[in-house]
Amino acid sequence: xxxxxxxxxxxxxxxxxxxxxxxxxxxxxxxxxxxxxxxxxxxxxxxxxxxxxxxxxxxxxxxxxxxxxxxxxxxxxxxxxxxxxxxxxxxxxxxxxxxxxxxxxxxxxxxxxxxxxxxxxxxxxxxxxxxxxxxxxxxxxxxxxxxxxxxxxxxxxxxxxxxxxxxxxxxxxxxxxxxxxxxxxxxxxxxxxxxxxxxxxxxxxxxxxxxxxxxxxxxxxxxxxxxxxxxxxxxxxxxxxxxxxxxxxxxxxxxxxxxxxxxxxxxxxxxxxxxxxxxxxxxxxxxxxxxxxxxxxxxxxxxxxxxxxxxxxxxxxxxxxxxxxxxxxxxxxx
Amino acid sequence: xxxxxxxxxxxxxxxxxxxxxxxxxxxxxxxxxxxxxxxxxxxxxxxxxxxxxxxxxxxxxxxxxxxxxxxxxxxxxxxxxxxxxxxxxxxxxxxxxxxxxxxxxxxxxxxxxxxxxxxxxxxxxxxxxxxxxxxxxxxxxxxxxxxxxxxxxxxxxxxxxxxxxxxxxxxxxxxxxxxxxxxxxxxxxxxxxxxxxxxxxxxxxxxxxxxxxxxxxxxxxxxxxxxxxxxxxxxxxxxxxxxxxxxxxxxxxxxxxxxxxxxxxxxxxxxxxxxxxxxxxxxxxxxxxxxxxxxxxxxxxxxxxxxxxxxxxxxxxxxxxxxxxxxxxxxxxxxxxxxxxxxxxxxxxxxxxxxxxxxxxxxxxxxxxxxxxxxxxxxxxxxxxxxxxxxxxxxxxxxxxxxxxxxxxxxxxxxxxxxxxxxxxxxxxxxxxxxxxxxxxxxxxxxxxxxxxxxxxxxxxxxxxxxxxxxxxxxxxxxxxxxxxxxxxxxxxxxxxxxxxxxxxxxxxxxxxxxxxxxxxxxxxxxxxxxxxxxxxxxxxxxxxxxxxxxxxxxxxxxxxxxxxxxxxxxxxxxxxxxxxxxxxxxxxxxxxxxxxxxxxxxxxxxxxxxxxxxxxxxxxxxxxxxxxxxxxxxxxxxxxxxxxxxxxxxxxxxxxxxxx
Amino acid sequence: xxxxxxxxxxxxxxxxxxxxxxxxxxxxxxxxxxxxxxxxxxxxxxxxxxxxxxxxxxxxxxxxxxxxxxxxxxxxxxxxxxxxxxxxxxxxxxxxxxxxxxxxxxxxxxxxxxxxxxxxxxxxxxxxxxxxxxxxxxxxxxxxxxxxxxxxxxxxxxxxxxxxxxxxxxxxxxxxxxxxxxxxxxxxxxxxxxxxxxxxxxxxxxxxxxxxxxxxxxxxxxxxxxxxxxxxxxxxxxxxxxxxxxxxxxxxxxxxxxxxxxxxxxxxxxxxxxxxxxxxxxxxxxxxxxxxxxxxxxxxxxxxxxxxxxxxxxxxxxxxxxxxxxxxxxxxxxxxxxxxxxx
Lengths: 334, 661, 343
Known about the structure:
heterotrimer, A: 334 residues, mainly alpha, MetI-like fold, 15 helices, elongated, disordered N terminus, disordered C terminus, C: 343 residues, two-stranded antiparallel ribbon, 2 strands, 75% helix, globular
């Protein structure tokens, strides 16, 4: 690991920061999809990553089966919201006291009478969407900036890298809070979009630096020189020769990052900047428990169900990531 | 209307959105006015069971959520600041304990109202000293009021004085009118400024202001001349806006030098530009200790307080009994609650959503606004007493907009095609009546207000002129609602349906709940009656509201003074804060305005009563708003504390009346 | 290396300038009316009031003009007045730093003691059950949202058991001691100032208030440190010199203390440094949960009210801290490991 190669403080989460710094060199040693297949096989033989995979598959199943697991109620009043959008959690009344789990509300209701079970089930979809969309968008931006910077070098590289540094100099959570607040004030950007865009806007820089470093090393390889000597265009060289060879480690890193992205999104929800009120989102449900701190021992279900969901979701990605690291470093193999 | 820092609206500004899921639109929460003890004869019996408060008996700790914008009484138009100021400064008159329309002299020794009700003469007390050592003179009173009126910051409280004294709502407007400068500028053009006003007019404006309040130091009097009889003016002289400052000290501190040529320099300052932003030199029972920004304000008792006779029979006198006051700002409910349970606080702000969590702490429950109210001992182990059920001067309404901005994103297609509403949707009275019948007050009051409110019967609240508890109102009635909507828009509404969006600003629970109740009930009548409820950031909410984009806006009003005129104005007058944006049809508006003017001109109490009753009736007949509810108050305080009472106009606690014997 | 440091330091103002440009670019999305929301507590009552406020604060001027005004006042050494903090921005920073610093500095203790010690333990017991438990615990640790951890701690230790306070830096009586004239405050850190003034009770009270916020803030970091230490230690233990030392018959204890541990600390120092810098992110959440009067809470309040002047000031401050901190870690790393060449 070389100091300064990555900047953990600018990565989406404190948790991922150091872990990723450590991962990067290791991942860079993977070079082809073929070794990826080998890795996948070994992941399934490791109990920790197997657990992670099982959890992840379970969450995916819940997300897919959400309409069956938690259908929108028929009742005109409580079903009003989810008839408009399935992500709007049905609300059962206007009392401010949460209701404990019962036959009618399996996980109870929040302080605003939102059904926790419905929210946890549909929140799974939100988590996947949020994690995958944010990560892909950040990747696309990061890849574009990183490859342009690395391929052209010179003053383009210089400027782009200074821009990257500017984004990274803005402490991540502070930046996301600021931008999310501003975006939420725009009528054109509503719902989950402001928080997602905010996380994308400050989440791409790590990928840009990584792909840049990768390309710089790939660029020196023979096949790139060969392509250049036969007069292939810049675009063609980047897309056909450089990227495919440099992209794999970045993709792996990005996918392992989904768990922490979901945590960052939850942090924005905690500040009331994540999703609209009553949207199926784990973070928001947990945050709503803050008003109940003194009696949280009685109202445990507000924190425990969505809290368990988000922790397990993030855990599943981290377990896979952890095992992945072990596999990549044969010296640590058991 | 003052801004109550406990309201959801203010929360959007003072707190993190979303962290502040407390409170209702304008529903007062626990923090309520203060005063003095009658005999505290309901003595708790099981002393030993109560958890001990760790707060020493000479200290009072109040944990709240708002923070003053400034401590300049002329600038302040919100309750957090006014509450502090009411303890630092004395005013010429003061409320007679819990009564909002009866007064006792305070810095005045006595006062008289002339027969034509247009002249108030105050005879000032002698030998009163300011905290910094100056001596009170009648000229200090005049200076304070002159300064306040000339300072007249944008959208501030001074309009309440300028109207009765000069017949203008802003001092700038008065100057422009005198200088013949048009304020009616086209969109995009520069609005006129005071710099364009010639020096002689500037001088004249100030002299006009000075003529309304004249001090005679030799005679020891201050004479206030009103343009027309203003029955509530003594209320204004009892509120912190009339706080008496030390003229010499103010000039020393580089505030306005009392010169009529220079006042524009001190006009409309930013809050922190005022000398009094975080300094105070009053004559009040407390001196300002320190304002640690964002954390706490401390007050220390004024050991040389001038009062030697009880303010009223059995009232407080001499230096304050509670010598240290700590007002902490804690946004987090859990922290506030823990402070109370740990005995680190004497009173905390309790959002309605958390009332149930307080239940086990309550020792004695008083059904009213002081210790004389009927009391029930609830839990001998409790550490706090609860006062509840006393009326407040705050109420909410959902207002129909008769001409919505066509660019509104809240009216769907803008057509009567089921996917939106036309901009004039609410001009049809059957729509308005239908909506009114579809509002479920019981759910609203029981669930959203926790039973702490009564349905309002029009703009005018309980206890004021024109109010009658037998006047006609709309009642929740799905059948009438359905029938009324079936008649609307030529009978095609049930067929086509409609879609609109009701917005509320984040954190404002009352707005949110009212909108959702309406949405639920309409959906239950016809699936095609669709109301979406949307949460907006405060900035977006404010902008959309200003652009008149909302089909219905829900807002609360907190009285400035205790009189029906302060309620018909915002809800019905063409100049009213709310009605102005509703765009009533011209004939309807003219009818309202005429009646409102008649009410202001009338001095005979019985006739005023009749006029306001008519206005109340008109508002119901025309169904201009869904009048929601007037909140009742609730206040928790440590058992050790006595002397608290509720005065509906007091902005916060008046520690002078309280003690911990 | 000197060149590297000089280059980074020269770039610092450029980067900071970029950050302020970025913030102004972000607020240019907003209309003047929206930005005026900071200055009005309620719907304006008088016609034209909102326009007056927009004019008064120049909110309708082009963004570059507003930026120019701000830069100009910066050049005069004036960070502006914080509307949400109700005092000058510089004063907000001065007032709030000690609280955040105390929180962050104390958080180093669990990160180092718990994280590193457990990491070493885990490595030494490689593949034993205690290793597995610690590994899983550390992974779970990094998977839980910080605010949830804070809420749960608050729920159990403060609200339910009542052992610890729920927020603030001191109880009221102690606060009064600290506020009294004559209290010497060389550092602003209450635990240190308490000792300076010879008031053990203040120190004790401050420590009690620190326990839960520190536990929350360091919760993620100690787990990261555990993992890093563990893998670094495992690697070192396999190195030849350690094997050699063992072969020479040195006691296992001595091998670990003399040879393995110092070498394993290299990556730990770097990651630890980054962790410290990034505590700022965690502080935003922790300070909000525990009502901690630090920089993070001021920032959240400013940002959520669109108080851009305050946001600018606080970001300038924290960005400087972040850049200089990163540089310091780079330098430290290069100094510890001469093989690394900074370029």
